[in-house]
Design goal:
Layout: H1 15-48, H2 52-69, E1 77-78, H3 84-94, H4 96-115, H5 127-149, H6 158-170, H7 174-189, H8 195-198, H9 202-217, H10 230-233, H11 244-270, H12 280-297, E2 303-304, H13 306-314, H14 321-336, H15 338-341, H16 346-360, H17 363-371, H18 375-387, H19 390-410, E3 412-421, E4 427-437, H20 442-449, E5 457-467, H21 469-484, E6 488-493, H22 537-560, E7 568-573, H23 580-583, E8 591-596, H24 612-621, E9 626-632, H25 636-647, H26 654-659, H27 663-670, H28 674-681, H29 686-705, E10 712-718, E11 725-729, E12 732-735, H30 741-749
Parallel strand pairs: 4-5, 5-6, 7-8, 7-9, 9-10
Antiparallel strand pairs: 1-2, 3-4, 10-11, 11-12
Helix pairs in contact: 1-2, 1-3, 1-9, 1-13, 1-14, 1-16, 2-12, 2-14, 3-4, 4-11, 4-12, 5-6, 5-16, 5-18, 5-19, 7-9, 7-16, 11-12, 11-13, 17-18, 18-19, 20-21, 27-29, 28-29
Family: Belongs to the beta-class carbonic anhydrase family.
Subcellular location: Membrane
InterPro entries: Carbonic_anhydrase (IPR001765), Carbonic_anhydrase_sf (IPR036874), SLC26A/SulP_dom (IPR011547), SLC26A/SulP_fam (IPR001902)
């Protein structure tokens, strides 16, 4: 399948083609990213308590070094909002020049992590903790920059920022407030403007516009102060003074946060284009070298930045040349146009950062945390970061996530309920177990099982994702005791079971199976007609099978490789809403399925053997002793046949020839067939009445076809409106409830009558 923004392999195209491609796609994209990167880099430097030039140095180093050496071709690197709090704390503790050295050392640590292929394990951190960490950083940025927008200074802690906000709000700098509100207003309105206008980055427009307005009408707003030429800032590095443990903690904090943010960004960028996937270990090496270069030159820490990266992809970038060129443009800007930077009001950058900070608190992350039952971890992590510091707050979140994992291993949800009577009159008990069933949780399950009266039928349904051998042995012991007392225990679970299953001395882990396998395409992918040319739902469905189901089903197919052992022949309509394996909860090797228009069967003496052949093959060659005929409500074939019969003429062609097989069922219905009368009494429409009669008539035809064979025939009817299944009993269909499945099981177990 093609991609809306394909990437051509860099090592296969000719040099001239690469040059043309760079000029056509990457140069324009690099200019767009450059325009986004400059104001963001300046704002992040201000928020971090670092020299403003450090943001430009980091943007240039990240773009050029990580762009050339990283493993994610379209990722754009530079200073990121996610590290502002860490940098601010580090600057406050060690000073700016020592912070540069810490950035350099963190970069070298990243290189080691990437070279030893350990970088990808940074992604093992709980997503809830990561999203909460970013949200806490966003809140810290907003609190600090609110002070700047009011004309004050950002404070090192959230509590101090809140106190100063209250004080500054009582006596604000009106010019600063107007500059900050102006930027925020432009950024709020910009996404609603026409696409042609939005082609220019809103951040750039906001900062430039407020800089121009401030020059004329807001003289009281404090400006950015670079403190000298950019070249003067290069090389301002000094070894940090402090305990080795404190320095190591700062290096580790910067390295881990920069690594996690870069790797998560790389994974996200991969989803935006159809080109080569990121090499995460190489990307971490590239990020480490960029951080080492940035720290050595006096710049901020560098990470992959999703805002710039997504802008890069949307602008049409095809290769890593775009990210590299963006860094070159930043460097030229910093050297040539540095005087313009000092005209920017600090409050304008504060408004830009307030918008960035609020963007880090994402409602989707909160919803996902709530859905996973981890909202308390999300809130606890944020509280820890705001009340203490970043590293301690994240550690609190990680410990909470670990506690939750351990609790889930011990805790299982157990539902015990009576579900009617079995065929022999005993009470049936259904026990459903959800979660992970280890030896730690099994005692709870056994204590619940002990509350069930003796001598009954117990269905133990283990809907678990983990069952260890020790827990299984405890269940086997309880089952033996219960059956010794006269009870019956039926166990259903996803691991190996029964006499043929080996008793492995290892944990049985159910392979993951996607619920998409049970849902129609429209429930999980875009099936609009204008989209199917590029991403046809059939192709995406096949891809989902290979991704999610092929591996879990591999042992099943291996067991069926030599021969099939179907348990039933299932005849039903071609209607796409009728899915035999879904309504019977069956899998490969269970059903020999035959589908015909209207689930029709030709007369036994008909020359058409399209149904007779698979029926006889299943019964005679495979030894199947059960044949099912399943009709359904709202059948289009029966509708057409009924209307054509009343009109006195069938449609021309193959469809009309086939629908003639339905005429005898229609005549039976018109003559008052008891199944049709029962359907009418139940309030069924005429088409459904005929469809139910048709099931009975087709069963009669199959009785003739299979005469003299040891076969049972079962009639089913699927109600499309509510998904319920009915079974033909005597002269009518009855809905199968949970309690009535015993009768169906008894019917299926009973031997068919001996042929006359």
């Amino acid at each position: 399948m093609s991609s809306p923004n394909p990437i051509l392999p860099e090592n296969r195209s000719r040099p001239l083609d690469r040059l043309r491609q760079t000029i056509r796609f990457d140069v324009p994209a690099s200019l767009v990213v450059f325009l986004v990167a400059v104001p963001l880099s300046l704002g992040i430097a201000v928020a971090s308590g670092a020299p403003v030039a450090a943001g430009l140095i980091a943007a240039a180093a990240g773009g050029i070094v990580a762009g050339l050496l990283g493993g994610s071709p379209l990722q754009v690197s530079g200073p990121a909002a996610g590290l502002t709090v860490v940098v601010a704390e580090t600057v406050a503790e060690f000073g700016w020049e020592a912070t540069c050295a810490i950035t350099l050392m963190a970069g070298l640590l990243q290189v080691v992590l990437g070279a030893t292929r350990l970088g990808r394990y940074a992604l093992a951190i709980s997503p809830t903790v990561v999203s909460a960490m970013l949200a806490a950083i966003g809140i810290s940025i907003v609190l600090g920059q609110l002070n700047v927008a009011l004309g004050g200074r950002s404070q090192p802690s959230a509590l101090e920022n809140v106190r100063h906000i209250v004080g500054n709000a009582q006596n604000p700098n009106v010019h600063a407030v107007l500059a900050g509100l102006g930027v925020i207003g432009i950024l709020l309105v910009w996404p609603r403007l026409p696409r042609r206008v939005r082609a220019v980055p809103g951040q750039l427009v906001a900062v430039v516009a407020l800089t121009l307005l401030a020059a004329a009408w807001l003289p009281g707003a404090e400006r950015v102060h670079l403190g000298g030429d950019l070249l003067d800032e290069i090389g301002s590095v000094a070894l940090p003074e402090g305990t080795p443990l404190a320095v190591a903690g700062a290096v580790l904090t910067v390295a881990l946060i920069a690594s996690v943010e870069s790797l998560l960004s790389a994974v996200a960028v991969d989803k935006l284009h159809g080109g080569p996937r990121s090499n995460l270990d190489r990307e971490l090496v590239g990020q480490g070298l960029a951080n080492a270069a940035s720290g050595a030159l006096g710049g901020l820490p560098v990470t992959g930045v999703i805002v710039r990266s997504s802008t890069n992809v949307a602008a049409g970038a095809r290769t890593r040349a775009s990210g590299v060129l963006h860094g070159v443009w930043v460097l030229l800007f910093a050297l040539v146009l540095v005087g313009l930077v000092e005209q920017i009001p600090l409050a304008a950058l504060a408004g830009l950062l307030i918008m960035m900070g609020t963007g880090l608190v994402r409602p989707a992350d909160i919803s996902q945390a709530h859905a996973r039952g981890e909202l308390w971890i999300y809130g606890l992590t944020i509280a820890g970061v705001l009340a203490l510091n970043l590293i301690e707050g994240v550690m609190i979140g990680l410990v909470a996530a670990l506690v939750l994992v351990l609790w889930r291993l011990v805790h299982v949800r157990i539902d015990v309920r009576s579900s009617g009577r079995s065929a022999d009159g005993r009470e049936r008990w259904l026990v459903e177990v959800h979660g992970s069933l280890s030896f730690l949780a099994t005692p709870t399950l056994v204590s619940r099982l002990d509350t069930i009266p003796d001598g009954q039928v117990v269905e133990l349904d283990l809907l678990v994702d983990y069952l260890d051998p020790a827990g299984r042995d405890q269940l086997d012991h309880w089952r033996g005791r219960y059956e010794t007392g006269g009870g019956t225990v039926l166990v259903e679970h996803s691991g190996p079971h029964g006499a043929e299953a080996p008793r492995q001395e290892r944990a049985l882990k159910a392979p993951p199976v996607s619920p998409r396998g049970l849902l129609p395409w429209g429930a999980w992918q875009d099936v609009r007609p204008d989209r199917t040319g590029e991403h046809h739902p059939l192709a995406l469905g096949v891809r989902e099978y290979h991704r999610r189901h092929a591996v879990p089903l591999r042992p099943v197919y291996e067991g069926l490789a030599e021969a099939q052992e179907a348990h039933a022949v299932f005849l039903t309509c071609v209607d796409s809403r009728v899915v035999p394996n879904l309504i019977t909860s069956s899998g490969p090797g269970d059903l020999l399925t035959v589908r015909t228009l209207g689930n029709l069967v030709p007369e036994p003496d008909s020359p058409d053997s399209s149904v007779a052949a698979p029926m006889l093959f299943g019964v005679d060659d495979l030894g199947v002793d059960t044949v099912v005929v399943c009709g359904h409500s709202g059948c289009g074939a029966i509708t057409s046949a009924l209307e054509s019969t009343r009109a006195g003429e069938m449609p021309a062609g193959p469809v009309g020839d086939w629908l003639r097989h339905a005429v005898p069922a229609i005549l039976e219905w018109q003559a008052g067939h008891p199944v049709g009368a029962a359907a009418a009494a139940a309030g069924r429409c005429e088409v459904d009445q005929v469809a139910q009669v048709n099931v009975a008539v087709m069963i009669g035809r199959l009785e003739e076809l299979l005469a003299g064979r040891d076969v049972r025939l079962v009639g089913l009817f699927l109600d499309i409106a509510d998904g319920t299944l009915q079974i033909l009993r005597g002269d009518g269909f009855t809905t199968l409830t949970d309690a009535e499945t015993d009768e169906l099981a008894h019917l299926m177990e009973a031997r068919p009558p001996e042929p006359a």
